[in-house]
Input
Amino acid sequence: MKLGQIFEEKKLVYSLEIFPPKADSPIEKVYDTIDELSRINPDYISVTYGAGGSIQDNRTFLLSSYTKNQHNIDALAHLTCIGATRENIDNILDELKAKNVENVLALRGDIPSTATDFKLGDFNNSQELIRHIKERGDFGIAAGCYPEGHPETKVKDKDIEILKYKEEAGADLFITQLFYDNNYFYEFLNKVEQKGIKVPIEAGVMPVINKKQIERTIQLSGAKLPGKFIKIINKYEHDKIALRDAGIAFAIEQIVDLISSGVRGIHLYTMNNPYIANTITDSVKSIVESINREQVI
Ligand code: FAD
Output
């Protein structure tokens, strides 16, 4: 099913994100992760591609295919255009279509961490990629958005203007960068509404797993941390299990607040950790179901 239809059918969409294994790790490990996540029965699972400047290879597409064809869960393959030619992108789109993957998250991409001199390729930004995919007509298209602003954007609220371009180019859905303070998200939604943007926005929520992960995430995303979150990290940084459980509790509270405020979707960054994804989902399941029952009545 394409994203547009998924959002038409559900008042509240609940989706998951995973990432491919490192270059020297077997893909089977992530197939096992998908097997475990499938019990959540999410509306779709997205698979990152070269995130954080890591390696780009076809395992994103193999994992997307496995999700769709082995579990009959809709898949959203991330696709970045940084350094890519039109031909590269078309080959990937053909591969995805052949694998019955119907949705693509169209991104410019992170600048590779090892690159000293990188080239953009045939596409200057995500809008050009979105337009190109839209012209082919085969895919539901998601795009990224940034409640706290994109780290490279210097002009205030420029991101809202760019979001409008992404909508006009053909995006069916926006998924946010992770954030830990819901107030930034609500302020962002107000601006989006004022701009007349109608595309649904899913909130990206990333639970804390450990201190190292959080430091790297903050460095990449620029997300600000609320005081109560900093307290949790400082208090439990040397106790893995306590930090994990406090991180789970924080994510649950964040999700409940987002859902109660009328968010259209929750996109849970699972970090390929089924225990965390399952624990969070079990706690919010009845709330998600309650919202989706409202529409049926
Ligand atoms: P764009 O929308 O092209 O924006 C990039 C920059 O250019 C921004 O600063 C923007 O302000 C500026 N810009 C864009 N259009 C214009 C314009 N017309 N005029 C002037 N300035 C403009 N990265 C990966 O490599 N792999 C992944 O799998 C991945 N998954 C992600 C998932 C989500 C939900 C999100 C939010 C991000 C993800 N990223 C991923 C990170 C993303 O690739 C980076 O944030 C990247 O730096 C920007 O991508 P974009 O598609 O938002 O770029």
About this structure: Residues 274-296 form the longest helix (23 residues). The mean pLDDT is 93. Residues 48-51, 78, 80, 107-110, 125-127, 144, 150, 152-153, 158-159, 162, 165, 175, 177, 204 surround flavin-adenine dinucleotide (CB under 6 Å).
